[in-house]
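User: Structure tokens for this complex, please. No commentary.
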Amino acid sequence: MIAFAVLGTILAIAQAGCAALVLADALRGASSDLWGLLAGFAVLALLRAGLVYAGERAAFAAGAAARRRLRTDALSRLLAAGPALLRAHHSADLTAVVVDRIEAVDGLFARWMPAATVAVVAPIPVLIAAAWADRVAGLVLLLCGLAVPVIMAAAGIGAAVASRRQFLALSRLQARFVDRIRGIATIVLYGRADSEAAALSQAAEELGRRTMRVLRVAFLSSAGLDVATAVALVVLAVRYGMALLAGDLASPATALFVLLLVPEFFAPLRSFAAAYQDRLHATGAAEALIDLPPLPEPAPAREIRTVAAQGVTIAFEDVSLTWDKARGPALDGLSFRVPAGETLILAGPSGAGKSSVIEILLGFVRPDSGRVTINGADITDLVPQALSRLTAWIGQRPVLFAGSIRDNIRFARPEASDAEVEEAAAAARVDRFAATLPQGLDTRIGEGGYGLSGGQAQRVAIARAYLKNAPLLLMDEPTAHLDPATEAEVLDSLRRLALGRTVILASHAAAAHAFGGRRLDLRAGRAAATARGAA
Amino acid sequence: MIRVLLRILGLWRSRAGWLAAGLVLSIAALAAGVGLMADSGVTIATAVASGVLFAPVALRGLGTARVVLRYAERLATHAATFRALADLRVWFFRRLAHSSAGGLGFRQAGDVLARMVGDIEALDGLYIRILVPLAGAILLLPALLILIGWRTPGLAIAVGLLFALAAFLLPWIAARAASGAGTRLADASGGLRVAVLDGLTGLREVRAFAAEGRTLAAVQAREAALLAAQHDLARRTALAGAGAFLCAQAAVLAVLIAAGANPAGAVAAAFLVVAAFEAVGGLPRAGALAGHAAAAARRVLAITDAPDPVPDPASPAAMPASAAIRCEGVHFRWLPDRPPVFDGLTLDIPQGSRVALLGPSGAGKSTLAALLLKVAAPQQGRVLLGGTDLADLPAGPVRSRIAWLSQTTHLFDDTIRRNLLLARPDADEAALWAALDAAQIGEMVRALPDQLETWVGEGGHRFSGGQGRRLALARALLAEAPILILDEPAAGLDADTERDFLTTLNGVAEGRTVILIAHRLTGVERLDRIWRLSGGKAVAAAA
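Assistant:
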């Protein structure tokens, strides 16, 4: 890329020479062999066009390779950090990092880095050529050229600080847009569309004002370049005008050659100034990438024996967990044990810690103190893949992905055959409502599962658990959104699913009664009492 | 393509002053820049040819003017663009609010975001990179023809043709060629955003099913599609750029060939041509980008042009005083290929009564709420509010009579206070706490260190499911609407809290019509009537 640019500059100097000689000859009224010079000019032009094209292609390739590497790295880190991230960050914020900020970094690799080198290297041959023709001209260009980075640095320091704040504001505004779009039905039905639009407009206006503050400083660097170009051009034009008049200059060719070199001298600096904006954008974006959670140390892949006949035994020993210091501990010295193949029902009011137990077992969060073991192995020693292989999960608010119902069920086990997916769909009673949809199981459902009611989405989650077929089944209010008839059916199929597995079910009394098993009452993160459930 | 872009420009009418100011400044800066270069040439040529030093004062003036005007132009054009883009986003939000009261439907929030953020961003080059240089080129062409043609008409025609090729024809060809790639680029970047947002929103599912590798692979596949589209576009853009460069070089060559005829003029012409072509050198690339901008504009317009699902009546009837609700022979299906939800539904809900609507999933309980809120309209039959057909009433006033708590009510990523104020912006502190207490969550909020200023998180995720539902309920209770529709208000609450809450509800909503939508009753509800929905009809049951 850099070689293309420097070679292009050398060809441009040769072209300026050809043009200056032709024009000077015309001015003196002499007509030597001009066709050779004209042909040389044309050939050099073609070569330069080729270099321009090749240089752009190379710049794109460099930017694309860098983005590919950075995006994979950023997303891997987010995926490794897992669901705990969602407690502190909006998923649209995180998406902006992975999509937009990495796109913004492109300018750094595709334009800024090559332009920064070219800006230093490419003017040198021009300077040598100008000095060879006329020492004074070389000195003028050198002085004007040296002034450029000084002005840029002065303007750039202020702009860099402002740009960082700017990026933060931009990503907040984006998160706000997506949040308002998601809740647009709520906004419209409360009749607040106009005031929300006005608030968004105000926020955008504010952001625009702030951006202009950054740009007012940033554009100073471009203005500095304009000043340097204009000064060089005016000084040299006046100098040669006077010299020619006084007869000090033998041939106008020197004057024309030097004047034609002025734009070539500043062209790399101009690309550099344009790329400077890219760098400001990219540094702000790159800092957001540094804030990403680090990739975990590759843990020694410790496997636990999961022979089906033995199953999975779970034990909590004096486990405490605090999500938010202000709101007190979610779990406060909780201990219990679930032998293989047995069912534990976690009961208690909202906020008693039921979901926290499930989230620890899913590996979403690590306990602050105490020990959680699966078949005697500490859960914090297990790699996420090993833990996932053991568990099937039915949550309160299942997320359905964009795609067909079939794809969403198959998410639990991608290698499952169509027959297995359909079997799982039937076991969870998904087939009942799927039959009324235009394309059955192949009906597409959008983000959040529009077109499916809460109960229907829940049944898709249950079908996932069936397909997963894991020895440990974790359920968090699996029937919260179901009507009694469907609930009875689903509980029936859940009971069949539970057979021979270790089950932990967080639920209220109604569902718990239908499920046999030991019951653990939670109050403020502690065990209140244990009792044998009915049935 | 041009029609689509013109429609976008039409939306910027109110910013015409800013846009015009940027345009004028840009043309002035261009004139100063071209003048500076041409004048340098003239200075040398006249010094050689006539022995007179011509116009050094003009040179200095042009040099200063160029610097000042360029700076002013950059500021003005960028300020105009920011204002125009902000207008576009807000306009988009308003249009979306009209067509999407029932939720985003099959449109994905991530995709809508891509349109709103990415596609509208793609339109930002429309003014600065396409319109502004194009206006400059249109003024430069006659200037070139006159300045050069004055002495050498033949050369003027050759240079003029090359200039037209670089400034108008090449950009147009590039735009045509890049249009396909631009469409694919817009689709691919939307696709990437949906894939990433899907994976990150579903981080819990991804972890629970160990789908990290698959999610990463899905995103990489979308990214590969994006990079391929960008690569294609970059190649065309590079070709267009090389073409423009060759035009400029050919024009200089023409000047050199013609130099013998009029040497002094040729020197001035050479400098003029270099400056003029430099000014339009970016246009062929801009043309290639115009294809992308047009595709983005089409995607934006596809959403904003979606018709209102229930248009307001042309001559609305007066809002009735009564809040009595009556359905008469209502037939309704969401889509022509879906089974009917209502098939001759008739029911009565007198003003101030407390009614339960019971039925299994899919019996149409929530659909009835949609009909009452004018999110959907019956294909046959009438829904009456206070004796007036809803079809004759505008949606805004109707919705202000109804407070609705749905299963999907959205909690905004904002403070508790701001979430509540959505329902009644002028509510005072006491009213907020009364609503929170009525929803059985006042105590919990009082215990928080920031109380009403506590941030609720995305979709209320900082609170448990039950707590989030109660915050949404407090918001519905705060609205001063005579009709309260509670769609499964107790889902996710434990049995004790549910009973407490329903008992409280018996007292707080005194004097309002309460429509309780549920799978089943707990026995503590005070009800005047119970309707059971089944087979698309309503059957009265004993209260």
